Amino acid sequence: THTHTGKMTSFTVVDAFTNSAYGGNPACVVVLDEPWGDIQYQTVAREMNLSETAFVVPVKGAENDNRFSLRWFTPTKEVDLCGHATLASSHALYESGRVAKGATITFESKSGELIITCSEDGIQLDFPDEAPSPIDTPTGMAEALNIDPSKIVACAQNRMDILVELEGGNEAIEGLSPNFSALNAYDTRCVLVTSRWTKPDGTYDFLSRVFAPRFGINEDPVTGSAHCCLGPYWGAKLGKSLLRAKQASLRGGTITVELKKEQKRVHLRGQAVTASKGTLMHIPSS
After folding, report:
1. C-alpha 68: how far from its chain's center?
2. Other C-beta atoms lying within 10 Å of the C-beta of residue 66
3. How far is the C-alpha of 90 from the C-alpha of 98, rounded, in Å?
4. What is the pLDDT of residues 121-154, one digit of tens each?
5. 131: three-class secondary structure by DSSP
6. Mean pLDDT of the chain, nearest integer
């Protein structure tokens, strides 16, 4: 059963970490006046069937402070942190005029307070530093990635993800064709496969691809939160605190990563484009 109410709930699909429509990573953003129940959130996220649907609700009593509750749902489950849907939510709030362009937004989330500001190169997300620790190459990883084991330079892991560094630069990453059912065996959110940027243009410092079969996403187009791991990893390797990253998925995306070591934070900067808008004709039952 569902109810049809007089008040329509609109949604916006935003392509994040790109400056061109239909690039980057799409997220659906639903801005509500009052919170819904978890089942309602999950029902809409399943219907939208994008990697993430974000639900934004103003925090009572802090309406003038641009303070919102933010929750992220995949089609099957809620997640603790999502970079691209946070960028998409910020973009939707700025573009709709809910928040004045240039004003700071504070999101209350399962990963604590997330502070959003505007910068020259887009919208800046202040995220936790999730630097990984070195690990031995997990058993079967080379086979799962369909590569020669000698191509693996190093592996590392944080509380969410496994990082695999390959030699071979752009060609190695762009040519990857993993066995997703084999990758699904690893008890991790994502497998991040990364290498140094080797094209002579030097546009970027590193590139990556992100595989998350456990979350029903074989390959994620652009993953902000993965750069909380990739940024510190490459920052330490390259001796840099400001890095430019390319995620080499089919849709492609770019992220600027600034490491704030003392604060144990990572600043992720990116652009976003509104791809479509629509209306939910029915409020799901709780």
Report:
1. 19
2. 18
3. 10
4. 899 999 999 999 999 999 999 999 999 999 999 9
5. coil
6. 94
The strand pairing partners of 283, in sequence order, are 3
Query: pLDDT tens, 99-122?
Result: 999 999 999 999 899 999 998 889
- DSSP states of 191-227 as a string? EEEEEE--STT---SEEEEEEEGGGTEEEES--TTTH
Q: Which residue has the tokens 């609700």?
A: 57
CA 243/CA 121 separation, integer angstroms: 13
Is 113 part of the annotated catalytic residue set? no
Catalytic residue chosen out of the listed positions 47, 52, 108, 262: 52
Give the strand pairing for 190-196 and 161-166: parallel
Q: What tokens were used for 272?
A: 């976003």
Task: Please give the model's pTM, rounded to 2 decimal places.
Answer: 0.90
Number of H helices, E strands in the chain: 6, 20
From residue 192, alpha-carbon distances to 65, 141, 159, 172, 177 in Å are 36, 12, 13, 13, 13
Q: Which of 212, 189, 205, 203 is nearest to 257 (CA)?
A: 205
In angstroms, the first-to-last Cα distance of the chain is 10
Q: Using CA atoms, how far apart are residues 170 and 286, in angstroms rounded to an integer? A: 47
In contact, 185 and 217? CB cutoff 8 Å: no
Helix, strand, coil percent content, the chain, rounded in steps of 5: 20, 40, 40
Strand partners, 54: 29, 72
